[in-house]
Amino acid sequence: MVYLKTTDTCQLNCDHCFTNGSNGKKGFFDTHAVIDFFQRLKAFNPHFENGNISFHGGEPFLCPTEQIFTVWEGVKDLWPNIWWSIQTNLTFKLTDEKIRVLEEICDKSWGTSWDYGIRWTNPKQEKLWRDNVRFLADKGHDITVMVSLTDNLVKSVSPIEIINDMASLGIKSINFERVTPDGNALDNLDNGVIPRNHVLDHWFLKMWEETKEHKCWEYIDNLFLNSILTSLVHNTYAGCRSRTCEQKILTLNADGTVGGCPNSAPTRTFGTIHDDIPSLLFSEGRMCNINDECTRNQICETCDVYDVCNGDCHQLQWQGDLCASPKSLMRELKNGIKSQDSYYKEVLSGFMGQE
Ligand code: SF4
Ligand code: SF4
């Protein structure tokens, strides 16, 4: 998986943004250097078959679409099976060229994000986002929305309110992201950005109760919930809980530096796209990141849901002895696995753990 940042900055400035919002470095990616990097990566390991390249930012659409097309044209034939996508805040006027990126490059399957109370500075901006989402969903786009679990959100909004609101816009999949102490979030730790872990734990349990009550899986995929259920039903660890992100993800910052996990990629870089590939992949910095991710908190070793959780994402902040995982939810699901295996499979609706 490669996060390909077309820019490190954004037209918005969310308090929880791990890439520094509008204070991120200005400028766009160097298209020729990026293409050259991918050509050398292909030569180094010709056996990659599948994967995902996702345009990222900041806001990736701040970059002229010609540059996005140039990179895609220059790279797509190296890996014909690779899935291309984009993660955009979608808070801008749609143009034919931007829609072409979503349709031709992303094959109408891509991601956007929604946040409670900290993203848009006025109702007009949120209306623009909602109108864009509705318009593209009506055109058959398969949209995944990422919702950040800030303190204000978990204290003020029920899971079902968000799930139903997003479904009403025509969104097909929803995912929930916990905030890590990076970028703007670091400056806003006391500002309602990162919730208390016990409150978050309770919110996740409520999400499961409301999902069952409303049979949400019949109208929207909840990727966060699905990733936990797949651990129980299929013994896999999807997404961050695999604890292999630093091994399988490269984030190419727009300034040419390279990191692993996108949340810490602006600060924990280990080389640049100009480096030769073996030096980059076996660099000391990358090895340190991998080592950090492999090392779990000792408390996990005696945890009753370790087999489901795997120690969770290594970027999440512990609060004393309390992790940021949905521990109560995992416990409840684990207790029910024998009697409710077929029910869990029904909720999964065929989802196998590939996010
Ligand atoms: S979270 Fe997304 S939309 Fe908000 S400032 Fe960061 S990059 Fe922009
Ligand atoms: S629930 Fe918490 S303590 Fe248990 S394995 Fe996961 S991160 Fe570790």
Cα gyration radius (Å): 20 Å
The number of strands is 10
Number of helices: 14
Range of helix content: 40-55%
Outline: globular
Structural category: alpha/beta
CATH superfamily of the domain at 2-195 and 244-295: Aldolase class I
Largest sheet, strands/sense/barrel:
10 strands, mixed
- The rounded distance between the terminal residues' Cα atoms is 11 Å
Could you say which small molecules are bound to this protein?
A: iron/sulfur cluster
The CATH class of the domain at 2-195 and 244-295, by name, is: Alpha Beta
User: Which strand-content bin applies to the residues?
Assistant: 5-15%
Order of helices and strands: EHEHEHEHEHHEHHEHHEEEHHHH
Average pLDDT, rounded to a whole number, is 94
Which consecutive residue ranges, at least 5 long each, have pLDDT under 50? Answer: none
CATH architecture title of the domain at 2-195 and 244-295 = Alpha-Beta Barrel
- What CATH calls the topology of the domain at 2-195 and 244-295 is TIM Barrel
How are the strands of the largest sheet arranged?
7-6-5-4-3-2-1-8-9-10
Report on this structure.
This protein has 355 residues and is α/β, with parallel strands linked by helices. Helix content is 41%, strand content 13%. The chain has 14 helices and 10 strands. A 10-stranded mixed sheet has the order 7-6-5-4-3-2-1-8-9-10. The model has no long low-confidence stretch (mean pLDDT 94). Bound molecules: iron/sulfur cluster (2 copies). The site of one iron/sulfur cluster (SF4) has 12 residues, from α13. One iron/sulfur cluster binds next to α13.
